[in-house]
Write a structure and sequence with these properties.
Elements: H1 4-25, H2 31-38, H3 42-49, H4 61-76, H5 81-94, H6 97-105
Helix pairs in contact: 1-2, 1-3, 1-4, 1-5, 1-6, 2-3, 4-5
C-alpha cells in the first residue's frame, strides 16, 4: 500500500518540477538559471527537460495553464517556488490527478477510490 504523501513525493513533485523546467526553458532561461530557480541541480533539470524523469503522466489544460502562469511569475517577479509548487499541487489534488496516479501505482486500490477525500 502506498500513502498519498508517497505519491506526491515520488510522482507529483517530480512532475511539477519537470513541467516548470520545460516552461522556464521556453522563456530562454539556461539550465543553470532554471536549476537555481527550482532549487535543483543542472543534471536534474537536464533529465526533466529530456524526459528522463516524470515522463509517464499527461496533464489537463488547467494544470498546464497553472504551470505556465507560475513560470511567467518566476521569470518576471522572482516568485516563491514553494508557493507556486503548492498551488499547482492543490490543483492536482482537486482534479484528482493524484488519485489516477495512485490507482495506477498501487494495485491494492479500487478503480473508484475516493480514500483521500472521505
Amino acid at each position: 500500500m502506498m500513502y498519498p504523501q508517497e505519491i506526491e513525493v515520488w510522482y507529483i513533485l517530480p512532475l511539477i518540477r519537470k513541467e516548470l523546467a520545460k516552461a522556464l526553458l521556453n522563456y530562454n532561461l539556461t539550465q543553470k538559471e532554471i536549476a537555481s530557480k527550482l532549487g535543483l541541480t543542472e543534471a536534474a533539470v537536464s533529465q526533466y527537460i529530456n524526459e528522463k524523469r516524470a515522463s509517464l503522466i499527461n496533464l489537463d489544460n488547467n494544470i498546464k495553464e497553472a504551470i505556465e502562469k507560475s513560470a511567467k511569475k518566476m521569470t518576471r517577479q522572482n516568485a516563491n517556488i514553494i508557493k507556486e509548487i503548492g498551488l499547482i499541487s492543490d490543483i492536482l489534488r482537486k482534479n484528482k490527478t493524484i488519485c489516477k496516479i495512485h490507482i495506477e501505482n498501487d494495485k491494492s486500490l479500487k478503480k473508484d477510490c475516493n480514500l483521500c477525500f472521505e
